[in-house]
Design goal:
heterodimer, A: alpha/beta, 6-stranded mixed β-sheet, 3-stranded antiparallel β-sheet, 8 helices, 9 strands, B: mainly alpha, ABC transporter involved in vitamin B12 uptake, BtuC, 0% strand
Chain lengths: 245, 265
């Protein structure tokens, strides 16, 4: 007898309103353990609001969200998060190492933390740089390092590939695959780049204020869905990029 | 206990408290809030005087209540925080001045509230400063990771499970209590300077959070203790002397740093 696994993330009839504007309208979906999910949609479609509401950073007006069958507040230690915009005071006196220590529940030794930096493609000597001195791409990788530092079971990434070059994007996709394969981490990843979806992601969620599609990329991302999602002639191209070693 | 030793002990304890909180005040841009809290306490001192109650406990309760009102108004009105603080502190200060004028109290009392003085500290005040100061320092020690993360990014802090509301309320109450305790020595007008100056000096010269916190504490102790010593020797009020030493140090270091930046351009 086969037992159906409980979803690790369950969103039911989610409604979010900002004032009189309904940003998310009756969104429902389940995510199974081990899925790598791309969340796509045009600008202002509510992708970021969706993730922020699941994380409890925005208030849900209606609906239910269960993470590992519990409220998000009970399972925060199992969650990682890479925010879309990390606005902070550039003069804030904090080194990369101190930032990682702040986010790390267990590992505090420099060696362990610099190893995490190498996992995201950063050299160890960056550890003593101040956060405000980092380039956009370096900061993005540090943000990914802090999100994976506690080996989360569920990882939310809000456009982590924004502001990094193609080589950086390849590293990022490698990290995601590795986390997924080695730790069984389930990943929800907001992206604008439809061409990377088929290679890496096992599922796609299309959002434009409401749920437009959810399923395996090759099935869910058809011409009709993309038209409905973006409103114009949009096509799905699968690009093949050279591998970077 | 020798008078000077007692003054140095109180000053040292206050400097530790002011610098500990000051590090987070600069990061969270709460300098105006701390200045406002100090001025609010004058209303509490006025009420205590007219009711013939102990001034320090009344000022503490009054100022902490004002901190809670500010927190509530910040979240439930469309007014910016600085306007709310400005209205509340001037109103409370006006109330204090009117009470002092109405009861015809000798202006020495008002002057002491405004500019501080170590002679006015009673035995019970001393224990209150040391006791409450220890509680606030213990909270800072326990919560420093949460407070630092909040200073850096509220979103990341919230996503990590930090209860922003609770931590902010405790920070506001601690800040209100600390300014009232500090005002006993430095005065209502000057106390916020010692919250701001050590952390600002430290920020000019440090690179990491660890060194920022340590240098803030060292500067606060140096400035406070040298201020008390100079004031004692010259028979001056310790508040203004302490602030002038700190401000002098800040001006020298900021000019040095600015000239270095200009040279590298």
């Amino acid at each position: 007898m086969s037992v159906t696994a409980r979803p690790i993330l369950s969103v039911r009839d989610l409604v979010v309103q900002f004032g009189s504007e309904r940003v998310l309208n009756r969104i429902s979906f389940d995510i199974e353990k081990g899925a790598i999910v791309a969340i796509i949609g045009p600008n202002g479609s509510g992708k970021t609001t969706l993730i922020r509401t699941i994380l409890g950073l925005e208030k849900a007006d209606e609906g239910e969200i269960l993470v590992f069958d519990k409220s998000i507040n009970e399972v925060r230690d199992r969650i990682g998060y890479v925010p879309q915009r990390f606005q902070f005071d550039k003069e804030f006196p904090m080194t990369v190492l101190e930032f990682l220590r702040l986010r790390s529940e267990k590992a505090r030794e420099e060696k362990t933390l610099t190893h995490k930096l190498s996992e995201v493609g950063l050299r160890a000597n960056i550890a003593h740089k101040r956060l405000g001195e980092l380039s956009g791409g370096e900061l993005q990788r540090v943000l990914i390092a802090q999100a994976i530092i506690n080996s989360p079971d569920l990882l939310f990434m809000d456009e982590p590939n924004a502001g990094i070059d193609i080589a950086g994007e390849e590293t990022l996709l490698d990290i995601i695959k590795r986390l997924n394969e080695h730790h069984g981490t389930t990943i929800l990843f907001i992206t604008h780049e439809i061409d990377i979806i088929a290679r890496t992601f096992t599922q796609v969620i299309c959002v434009n204020r409401e749920l437009i599609c959810h399923g395996a990329p090759k099935v869910a991302l058809n011409e009709a869905t993309l038209k409905r999602l973006f409103g114009t002639e949009a096509n799905f191209y699968e690009h093949h990029r050279p591998h970077h070693h | 206990m020798n008078e000077l030793v007692q003054q140095l002990l109180i000053g040292g304890a206050l400097a530790l408290l002011l610098a500990g909180l000051g590090s987070f005040i600069i990061l969270r841009r709460l300098s105006w809030f701390s200045d406002g809290m100090a001025h609010v306490s004058l209303g509490g001192l006025g009420i205590a005087t007219i009711a013939a109650w102990q001034p320090l406990p009344v000022a503490l309760i009054w100022t902490m209540l004002a901190a809670l009102i500010i927190y509530w108004l910040e979240r439930n009105t469309k007014l910016p925080s600085d306007a709310i603080i400005g209205i509340l502190f001037t109103a409370s200060m006006a109330l204090g001045i009117i009470i002092f004028e109405t009861i015809g109290s000798d202006m020495e009392e008002l002057e002491e509230a405004l500019f501080g003085g170590l002679n006015a500290i009673s035995g019970s005040d001393l224990w209150m400063i040391l006791g409450l100061g220890a509680v606030i320092l213990a909270w800072l020690f326990v919560s420093h990771r949460k407070l630092t993360l909040m200073g850096l990014s509220e979103d990341l802090a919230r996503a990590s499970g930090v209860n922003i509301q609770t931590q902010t309320i405790i920070l506001y109450l601690s800040l209100a209590a600390t300014t009232v305790l500090g005002a006993k020595v430095l005065g209502v007008v000057l106390v916020s300077a010692l919250l701001i100056i050590p952390a600002s000096i430290s920020r000019l010269i440090t690179h990491s959070f660890r060194s920022y916190t340590i240098v803030s504490l060292i500067v606060a102790e140096l400035v406070m203790l040298s201020g008390i010593l100079v004031a004692y020797k010259q028979d001056l009020s310790p508040g203004p002397v302490t602030i002038l030493i700190g401000a002098g140090l800040f001006i020298v270091l900021s000019v040095v740093q600015a000239s270095r930046i200009i040279k590298t351009k």
